[in-house]
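User: I'll paste a sequence; please echo it back and then give the predicted structure.

Assistant: Echoing your sequence first, then the prediction.
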Amino acid sequence: MRICVVTTGTNAFGGVYRHTWDLIRGLGAAGHEVEVIWPTQDVPELEGVRFHGVEAPTDYTSRRWQAASTEAFLRLHREQPVDVVHGEGSGALGLVRAKVDRYAPVVVMFHGNYVGLVKAAVRRGRARPSTIPLEARRIWSLSRRHFARGNATLFRRCEAIVPAHQQVADTCRSHRLLRGHVHVVPNGVDARLWRPRAKESRDRPLLVASGGLYREKGFHVAVSALAEIDARLVIAGQGAQADPLRRLAAELGVADRFELTGALPPDQLAALVAQADVYLFPTLREEAAPLVLPEALACGVPVVASGLGGIPEVIDRPGENGILVRPGDPGELAAATNRLLGDDALRASMGAAARERVLEEYTLERMVERTVAVYEVALGRTGERVPVAAAA
């Protein structure tokens, strides 16, 4: 199958980018012919994959990006017909506006959706009333972009992929999609990179967390919980909360047991996570399918995570392949972590069950197989297409 992937993501440290990169790599390894259009001339070498960099902003609403990505697709399609176009989120907005589905079916992967983002903003405003004006501005800005030029309904001609069942309803509402055109394909991880490793000797247990340093990720909850845990906490990531987290650690008297590493490339992050005695995921937002969760599970590390959003779909047997806690409660997070640190056998069994969960449902190979199955559905719905020569 000849697949054209269109994405605005080029940040090697972001979860969306890592998902896209793994999908591209997995499709190539499975023997598919993959063409990638993205907004940078820095094109890597990858077997079975050709990259086509275009000079354009990474903002999917940019008309320069939309025009450049569409032109690049049409050029590729004229050279040799593309079977399927894969769009990462709204990065394919220009292509669907140009109605390239006349030439090849379009499948779009949605990592989030408008309705979900609005709900999150409302929840944040309710939790912290002082932020209501800020959240109102965010909703206004988001709504302007979402509804501009008919953006909200342009994807109705596409097949859609979401990473969790929790996300289906809001994605349908956001883009006026028919339920039968929305497919759940869980995120997959490279289980050879994210794997158990021998633990290094140390004086204290090691707790690890990772992700963007934003308040809604709940890392301040983990720092607060550290005051009740005799362990060291390392958080890998970058963002606006770095200094507030350091100040909080100093105020609580745990600064000597707390470290921020900054953003780490996947190989270094995988090595760090595998060293953890417990991985913490104290998010305050209803994350549909956070990639860091199956990554940590694949390392055979017991995970304590907030029980909201799509997280219970991954940790589907709480107490066996992970522990779910109430979001925003440092005491509950500390109690669950201390329970694990005090029971070597429980940590071992939960880590093994976590790894098995990933091998059953969240491997890169399973993600590629399921994605290709959606491509086949899209091809099966194909009606009459415009001849290649008319693609101009």
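The first strand starts at residue 2 and ends at 6. The longest helix spans residues 344-361.
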